Amino acid sequence: MPLFLFRETEVIRAMRKIPDGSTIAISGFNISTAPEYLMLKLYESYEKSGHPKHLFIESDSLPGSPGRGMDLICRKIRESGKNEFLDGVLMPFLGWSKCLQQLLEDDFIEGYTCSIGTMAHLFREMSAGRPGLLTRVGIGTFLSPQYDGGALNEKARKQRRVTVDTVDIRNEEFLFISVPKPTISLIRGTTSDEMGNISMEKEGIYGSVFTIAQASKACPERGKVFCQIERIARTGSINPKAVHVPGPLIDYVIVAPSEYSWQTGSIEFDPRISGGLIPPRNHASGHSRAPDPKSVIQRRASLEIIRRVKEENRPIIANFGVGIPAEVPTVLEQERVSDYVYSTVEAGPWGGTPLTGEDFGVSVGPFAIIPLPDQFSMYEGGMIDIAILGFMQIASNGDVNPSMLPGRTPGPGGFPAIASGAPSIVFAGQFTAGKSSISVNGGKLVIKKDGESAKLVKNAYKVLFSGRSAVNEKKDITYVTERAVFRLKENGPVLMEIAPGVDLDRDVLERMEFRPEISDSLKTMDGGLFLPRKLGLHSRVVGIHKGILE
After folding, report:
1. Which of 220, 396, 406, 483 has the most Cβ atoms closer than 10 angstroms to its Cβ?
2. Which pLDDT band holds residue 285 (cuts at 50, 70, 90)?
3. Annotated catalytic, 380?
4. Taking Cα atoms as reference points, which of 121, 122, 112 lies closest to residue 181?
């Protein structure tokens, strides 16, 4: 039976017992399932007593959002000007914590990264007592040992606390990744009964909560699990099937103030997110004004989705990345074709409307929510039909860098695993970066001032998607921008379409760092993309069976 802690002083006293030098695993996909209260009490224990210190923290994403959780702790470290608390981190996503990114840029602590799915599966491997993870995710990218091996700064490259090796099995290349096993876990649920059984009925996701607890408890060194909850119930009042973490795996149960149990960065509680209520369909009336460049990209990506639906002659499973791709489901809803596309989000939701920004990871009205490691098994195994992902750079050979530049280290997130497994990918983003004046007027794209930075470059700064690997695996790859559409062929991206109103040389070719192959059948992008009306996608899928929804 776990020890129940109610007073703040009791929690800090328990945290003080954590050995110096511990590896700590923390749940949290942004604020969702992040044990915010426990994290702050952990740091307060260090502030008051100097212990625990020299910690290495692991997570399958980032347990926090701007000004909260991990970001708040890193801000306190930077403000103090000294640090014995944190030696390093292993986190797939750092985008919501500029303070953490700065600590890594300054080489203040060690920084390592990998895909969200890779980290979730590493926790599972450690739970089973295995020494590491064998995976194909990351081959030919900066996660491979011949490049950075996932190290984010010089301190990490010297320390090599996380190791990545190349292994050949039956003439096929794999990566073998080994990371420190956690001896302490900080996790979050909704309710604990008196035996310590944990349920998650008010959470928007399951995340990797159970897997992280298992990783700490596995041999050879059985660790401790701290669980933050909102409330306590009598033993027997939680349905056994609703128990997500069995009580015998929990050492400490801490009832946290309600302000530390928000479902997302901006939502305290919404039953539509946690499955308590599924809202009715709300088909938007359509576009009442001329589309802007971003909506052109989203609408053009929707055409690729419908193409895939027609090829498969059935509803398809899709993943939508952050940024511009995250709004594509809204287009599908407006066009009344969302029943033909089952959207999935990395953290576990299926269906519904995925949220964006610091609320990313949950959906409003999902029809299913599964644990995060299972979601990534699906992605890596190619069980989705299409992924719509963002990009920061596209290279001449088709490589993609989604987010990393000098001085900017947001980490790869779920991108590498999704891109590795998806048989069909649409990379959707704006053609250039920087301040610009680009609009849609009269059914044409109007470029008054272009962005100063090219995004279609000779070589990507950091490669997280290998064009060569995609060609070898015969993947269907499309690059969609507001002014041009490319498809990946043997020798790199081939220009297939340009927007009405743009000049091929001035607005496309001269704004690239490489000369692409131009299709013999180069055509103008669908004119409907640039008009304030629906695209008529519903009429294009008439006759395709939707199963019980028909």
Report:
1. 483
2. very low
3. no
4. 122
For 96, half-sphere exposure in the C-beta direction (CA atoms, 13 angstrom radius) is 29
Write the burial class of residue 185 (CB in 10 Å: 0-12 exposed, 13-18 middle, 19+ buried): buried
| CA within 13 Å, CB half, 52 | 24
Show the CA angle centred on residue 248, arms to residues 244 and 254, nearest 5°. Answer: 75
Give the pLDDT score at 290. Answer: 67
pLDDT averaged over the chain? Answer: 95
Mention every residue, 6+ apart, whose C-beta is less than 8 A from residue 496. 485, 486, 487, 519, 521, 522, 523
Cα end-to-end span (Å), the chain: 50
Distance of CA 241 to the CA centre of its chain: 28
pTM equals 0.94
Report residue 379's pLDDT band, with 50, 70 and 90 as the boundaries.
very high
Query: 488: part of which helix (H) or strand (E)?
Result: strand 484-489
In a domain, 263, yes or no: no
Same domain, 92 and 199: yes
Cβ pair 75, 102 in contact under 8 A: no
Structure tokens at 59: 């997570």
pLDDT confidence tier of residue 303, bands split at 50, 70 and 90: very high
Contact 416, 118 (CB under 8 A): yes
Q: Which of 208, 241, 256 is the last residue of a domain?
A: 256
Domain that holds residue 214: 3-256
Domain boundary among 206, 236, 256: 256
448 domain residue, yes or no: no
At 492, the pLDDT band (50, 70, 90 cuts) reads very high
Percentages helix, strand, coil for the chain (3-state, rounded to 5) are: 30, 25, 45
pLDDT at res. 548: 57
* 373 sits in which H/E element: helix 372-380
Say what percent of the chain tops pLDDT 90: 91
Residues 237 and 376 in one domain: no
Q: Which residues pair with 3 in a beta bridge?
A: 252
Q: Residue range 461-481: average pLDDT?
A: 96
- Both 490 and 408 in one domain: the answer is yes
**Given this model, what pLDDT does residue 500 score?**
98
pLDDT beyond 70 at 282: no
Residue in the structure block whose two tokens are 């996932």? 150
Instruction: Compute CA distances 317 → 105, 213, 368, 430, whole Å.
Output: 38, 30, 13, 25
CB 445 within 8 A of CB 508: no
Do residues 342 and 215 share a domain?
A: no
Distances (CA, A) of 40 to 8, 96, 160: 11, 17, 28
Residues 212, 25: contact at Cβ < 8 Å? yes
Q: Which of 110, 230, 304, 346 is catalytic?
A: 346
Q: Which of 287, 273, 367, 288 is nearest to 327 (CA)?
A: 287
What mean pLDDT comes out for the span 22-45?
98
